[in-house]
Amino acid sequence: MSTESLSQGARARARAEITRTIQETARRHLAEVGPAALSLRAIARDVGMVSSAVYRYFPSRDDLLTALIVEAYDEVGEQAERADRACHRADLGGRFGAVCRAVRDWALTHPHEYALLYGSPVPGYQAPQTTVGPASRVPLVLLGIAADAQRAGPAPIAPAVQVPDAERAALSGIQVLLDEPINDSLLARCLQSWATLFGHVSLELFGHMHTAVLDYDAHFEHVVRQLVADLGLDR
């Protein structure tokens, strides 16, 4: 290996290390001031850099926010995928429940990152296309379980309400992401289950059920069991 190649490798490692330090510091600031007040200058001070140097790594606050969002989506996505892989493939209900618990566990462990992803939008920030892939990881795990359920054959579930034409058209945009189509009725149920999962996690995390729920663990398990039954995964 040439001296020039070694030098380039060293520079790349140094850049990756500094980038990592900036993002870790930004996550601490995220917990202290929230995403709307995130400041590259303040982060630079904590890292021990002049602000102009930080801009060489993240040209704007929005670029840093995007990096944090992608990192958080990838973290919860990896946790969901790992939970799914740990289950027997034929245990559809077990897989679904494991994924739901993985999402909730990650949210409770990383409340500020969860709020960045699923809380109030950051004023003036518009997520770029690069966030779509990471954001799709959890839904695609759930849809993969649904696809396996469809492949396994009909399940004894209550008849589905007819999917409205407008929703059917919207679902076609999800179908293109799948390796194999899922019937619209099941896909609509999956969308509802995804909303229910994140809705309950958000209500718990943001303190909106504190007078209605005495045992959050028991409540969440009941929600998961109901979703498993609604999707026909409890076979």
Oligomeric composition of the shown chains:
single chain
Biggest sheet descriptor = none
**Gyration radius, in Å:** 21 Å
Straight-line distance between termini: 58 Å
Order of helices and strands: HHHHHHHHHHH
Number of β-strand runs: 0
Unreliable runs: none
| CATH top-level class of the largest domain | Mainly Alpha
Shape: elongated
Number of helical elements: 11
Average pLDDT level: 91
Which percent range describes the beta-strand content?
under 5%
Question: What is the fold named in CATH at topology level of the largest domain?
Answer: Tetracycline Repressor, domain 2
CATH superfamily membership of the largest domain: Tetracycline Repressor, domain 2
Number of domains: 2
CATH-scheme architecture of the largest domain: Orthogonal Bundle
SS-based class: mainly alpha
Can I get a quick summary?
This protein is mainly α and 235 residues long.
Would you mind describing this structure in some detail?
The protein is elongated and about 60 Å long. The longest helix has 31 residues, at 3-33. The chain is built from 11 helices and no strands. It has 2 domains: 1-59, Arc Repressor Mutant, subunit A (Orthogonal Bundle), CATH 1.10.10; 69-230, Tetracycline Repressor, domain 2 (Orthogonal Bundle). It has helices spanning 3-33, 40-47, 51-54, 61-85, 92-109, 111-118, 132-135, 137-152, 165-175, 184-205, 216-230. Helix content is 69%, strand content 0%. The chain has 235 residues and is mainly alpha-helical. The model has no long low-confidence stretch (mean pLDDT 91). Helix 4 packs antiparallel against helix 5 and helix 5 (92-109) runs antiparallel to helix 11.
